[in-house]
C-alpha cells in the first residue's frame, strides 16, 4: 500500500504471495538441477519433464480455480504444486541419468553427513570470498564512474 496499490489489490497480492512463496524454493532447486543436466549434455530430458509438468499445470490450475473455487489462492497453489512436481521429476530423471553417466553420478548426490563437513566449505570460501570482492570492486568502480560522468 506504500507504493499506491489500493487495499483490495494489496490483499489479493498478499494472499497470492503467501501461498506461492514456498514454490519458488522448489522452482530454484529444479532450475539448478536442469542447468546441471544441460551443462553435461543432457538437454532432452529436462525439456520433456518441463513440457509434461507444464501440461499438467493447466489441469491443476483449472481444478483448483474452477472446480474447487479457491479464487486468488488457486493459481498460487497450482504454481507451488507444479514447482514441487517439476523438482521431483527432474530429480528422478537426474538420478536415472546418473546411473549411466559417471560425470553426473559424481556431481549429483543426496545430502549426507559428508555434505556438512567444513573442509569443502573452507576450500569454497578461499576462492569465493576474493571473487566476491573482485565483483564488488568492479561494480563499485562502475558506479563511481557513472557518478563522476554525471
Structure description:
This protein has 150 residues and is mostly helical. The chain folds into 2 domains: 1-110, no CATH class; 111-150. It is 81% helix and 0% strand. The chain has 5 helices and no strands. It has helices at 7-39, 44-67, 73-98, 102-107, 118-149. It is flat. The two termini are 33 Å apart.
Tertiary shape: flat
Average pLDDT for all residues: 86
Query: Which structural class do the helices and strands define?
Result: mainly alpha
Number of strands: 0
Distance between the termini: 33 Å
Please supply descriptive tags for the structure shown above.
150 residues; mainly alpha; 2 domains; 5 helices; flat
Task: Provide a compact summary of the structure.
This protein has 150 residues and is an all-alpha fold. It is 81% helix and 0% strand. The longest helix is centred in the first third of the chain and has 33 residues, at 7-39.
Q: Secondary-structure map with pairings?
A:
Elements: H1 7-39, H2 44-67, H3 73-98, H4 102-107, H5 118-149
Helix pairs in contact: 1-3, 2-3
